[in-house]
Amino acid sequence: MLDFLNARTDIRRKAGEIYGVIVAQARRPAFYASLGVPDTPAGRYEMVVIHLFLVLERLRAEGESDSPLPRLLVEAFIADMDDSLREMGTGDLTVPKKVRRAATGLYERSMAYKAGLAAADDTALAAALAEHVYVGVPGRHARALAAHVRSTAGAFAARTARQMAEGDFSFSAVPTDATEAS
Length: 182
Description:
By secondary structure, the chain is an all-alpha fold. Helix content is 70%, strand content 0%. The protein has a single domain (2-165), classed as Tetracycline Repressor, domain 2 (Orthogonal Bundle). The protein has 8 helices and no strands. Helix 1 (2-26) crosses helix 3 (41-61) and helix 5 runs antiparallel to helix 6.
């Protein structure tokens, strides 16, 4: 019985560590300074969602449906959104509604980004990123971010789900200039 509880604690701890890596990547200054992502709570939310999506897609690609890790990562995301909203002074009565909206946003964006990655070129992915990250302003920044997302997805494809679950992965380098990814 104790082994089962220890295993649950270990996987929850690992999910927290992986989520921490995701948030650290999402906060890299190059996204905001070089790729024009708005340095706002909404912009930071979008970057967390993109990087969480990439990790979740890789974990789910091998069909390890019995693993609780994807669910625990989403739970960590939801807890983070709740904590962040409370720290920003959002009223207690509106926090659940906004957290629900953030979770729904993760699902909606995941579908859009998945479809964009499935396309042969970055046009659909850049359009999805422009719609969510750049609030409908397409341009070189959306294309550069799309190239980063595709590059990271490619790097993750070289990892097994087990390696990903163990935290044995790294994100692609962030272009320091939008023209580098064009």
